[in-house]
Amino acid sequence: MKLSSVASVILAGSIVLFTGCGCGGGGSSSSTNKGGTSSTTTGGSKTNKNYKTATIEASDANVIYLKSSAIAECNGVEYNSTNVDNGIITFDNIPASCNLDNILFKVPADAIVDADGDGKLSEGDKKIRMPLQTKGDGSVANPLTTLALENNDTAMFNLVKDFNPVKYKLALITGELDGKKLDEKAKAKYKAMVLASDTVADMLNGKEEEKKKEVFKNIKTDKFTQLIEKTDLNETNVTKVITKVIFQPVIDKTENEELKNEMANLKNRMAYLEQLLKLAQEANQKAKEKNKIDEYNRFSSICKSLDEGFQKDLKQFLLCDDLGKGK
User: What is the pTM of this model?
Assistant: First the structure.
């Protein structure tokens, strides 16, 4: 792995926690089955006037490989994805009669994400933490769109349908999005989305269907939208806001004691990402000041300063193992 920039190194490391690799051996990272043997419709092509092409982004981290196809649902019929390329999933088999804005897209639980940031399928990649959903051509399937659709919350979906967790983490690290400097209000809003997305994915990681439903129904999605759009968010109160909206309702309302304890423990989890962002911002600034000459040494020193235990996830976020080997 080349340390071409501080931001890209942090981004590659700040992808997925608490998941096994599950990436397997065979297959291609650039395409899924074209045609296949499924009973769903998979035919058609971009040049055939009877078909349309739809694309979505899929990101807890960027989806790089599909063991089983992603699905597009239109008029009660399911269509398999025809290609996946570093987070972009394509369906070139959608009948011309379908309204692309109304298609429901589903990304399966066995999708593999680019956890090491190298843009290709490799041993460092991991299984996605939760299946994802989104609606409409050009949207992003992420943990928050999935939450919004599960709760039939149109306002929240419209708020987060363009949210890419990887892109927004990078924006928080560099202070820029699409070449524009972020103001303080934008930083707080994006931080809230990143924390909420990461929290939801961790809450649902490995959960059986019954627990997933209980988590979904108890999260106050309408409150989340109100807080993001109307509350005077700042970087110091974001964690309090997310805890109030995401964690506490599940803890208060669930009758499942095991789930209640898991949610209570996960409240501390957000501190990991907050510390990561702070370290990443410091490292990025330091590298800019030194024209990136000291990039490797800066990261190496950060990694060495982290203790085991509570800081273990931050070590994983920062790819400390790779840095220690001089990669």
Answer: 0.77
287: CB partners within 8 A, 6+ apart: 5, 6, 294, 295, 298
- CB contact set of 37 (below 8 Å; sequence gap of 6+): none
- Output the six-digit token pair for 16: 């997925």
pLDDT confidence band for 324 (50 / 70 / 90): very low
Consecutive H or E run containing 315: helix 312-317
Q: Which residues contact 314 (CB under 8 A, 6 or more apart)?
A: 272, 275, 276, 279, 306
Structure tokens given for 180: 């524009």
Radius of gyration of the chain from its Cα atoms, rounded to whole angstroms: 20
Of the candidates 156, 137, 138, the residue with the CA atom closest to the CA atom of residue 146: 156
Amino acid identity at 69:
S
